[in-house]
Amino acid sequence: GRNRAEAIARGRRAAQDYVILGVTTNLAYLDTILDHPKFRSGDVSTGFLAEEADELNQDRDPATTDILAAATVLSDARLVKALENVPEIYRLMGNWRN
């Protein structure tokens, strides 16, 4: 972004819009950090995460996150269009595990 506020807004939008299914991510945590008043104002140090751990680590309902992710996937026509263009080799792989 051209400034801190724009960079934070873009980062939050990316964290909120990014969809990864099948694995747990820290995207909600990153969004919480980006939305924290001290982070937004630039009033942070290398101890920020430890100092604000109680607030940043508040329990989130995983079911809500899953529902929102599913709703995003189902409603995003761009994603549906992108999935039409997935190379055949990835479709043939199926649900593989690492």
UniProtKB/TrEMBL annotation:
Superkingdom, natural source: Bacteria
SMART domains reported for this sequence: Biotin_carb_C
Keywords: ATP-binding, Biotin, Ligase, Nucleotide-binding
Annotated InterPro entries: Biotin_carboxylase_complex (IPR050856), Biotin_carboxylation_dom (IPR011764), Biotin_COase_C (IPR005482), Rudment_hybrid_motif (IPR011054)
GO molecular function: ATP binding; ligase activity
Claim: ATP-binding is one of the keywords in the record: yes
Pfam family, one: Biotin_carb_C
Sequence ranges assigned to domain Biotin carboxylation in this UniProt record: 1-54
Name of the protein in its database record: Biotin carboxylation domain-containing protein
